Amino acid sequence: MVQIAQSETDVGRIFVNLPDTQIEALAAIAEADHRSRAAIVRDALKTYILQRKLALEADVFGLWKDKKFDSLAYQEDRRSEW
Question: Hey, CA dihedral for 36, 10, 47, 14, is it positive or negative?
């Protein structure tokens, strides 16, 4: 079972299977940075999640830009249904 962290200090534990080459690369990075492998993985995951979130937000920005109608009239029409 994976626990969901409520804050940076409230952490869960997961187990991840990695190829030996990735474990060796991770160990080299951890040693060079004088940090634990877990800290390196946390930072990498945090960066990945942020990049993914930004990419998803960018996908919806301007979604309606090519629509050929009066957006205010459309909004008012949708709201009149309420």
Answer: positive
Cα-Cα-Cα-Cα torsion 53, 56, 60, 66, nearest 10 degrees, comes to 140
For residue 26, give every residue at least 6 positions away whose Cβ sits within 8 Å of its Cβ, in sequence order, or none: 18, 37, 40, 41
Q: Give the three-class secondary structure for 63.
A: coil
Tokens of 16: 């991840």
**pLDDT digits over 59-70, tens only?**
677 777 777 878
pTM: 0.58
**For the chain, domain boundaries:** 20-80
Contact criterion met (CB below 8 Å) for 33 and 40: yes
Q: At what angle do helices 20-33 and 37-60 cross, to 10 degrees?
A: 100
